[in-house]
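The aim of this short unit is practical: by the end, you should be able to scan a pair of folded records and say something sensible about each. We start with the first protein, listed as its amino acid sequence and then its structure tokens.
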Amino acid sequence: MVCRSLAQTDGAGAVNLHLHLRRQHSYLANAVVMRPFEDDPKAVWQTLWASITFALPE
């Protein structure tokens, strides 16, 4: 089963994730920052991506 949820950072860049953690499950959290990109006239956005995976043991 896959569950998807969205969260957004506050003004300080922090976020609280409300997870329903279960044993023997793995989790993946993705983050992306999109901001205007002014150094290249052909580019509109600069995107920065990060991911983390974790699991709970039995």
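Turning to the second protein, read its sequence before its tokens, just as you did above.
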Amino acid sequence: MKIKEDTLIQELAFKAIRSSGSGGQHVNKVSSKIELTFNLKDSQALSELQKLRIEEKLKNKLTNDGVLVLQCGETRSQHKNKAIIIQRFLELIKASLVVSKKRIPTKVPKSVIKKRLKNKRQLADKKANRRKPDIQ
């Protein structure tokens, strides 16, 4: 299924927040971490079928309201973090829209079954020969 990346990106909401962790005085003043929010239920870029598929695959990452929240604070640059999070978001959406093929179980050939049983019998005989004879 095809998705419209441009319209998807327009529906994203970004918020700059302060990064956690070490970094000295500068990290306490600058909001370089980016938080991306995407409201799946109100999206115009996705069809209903796509929304259902995404909701099923990403149910652990969605809030109760159907909002996807992602964060990125990998770099010190706000612009780089924004680019990283947009790329990560698009990959996540594309991966969740991929339909996996249904597995068709195959039948085990009779020759394989015979071979397995033959080997099993040989091992059983070998172990039986190791036992002490039963003399009475």
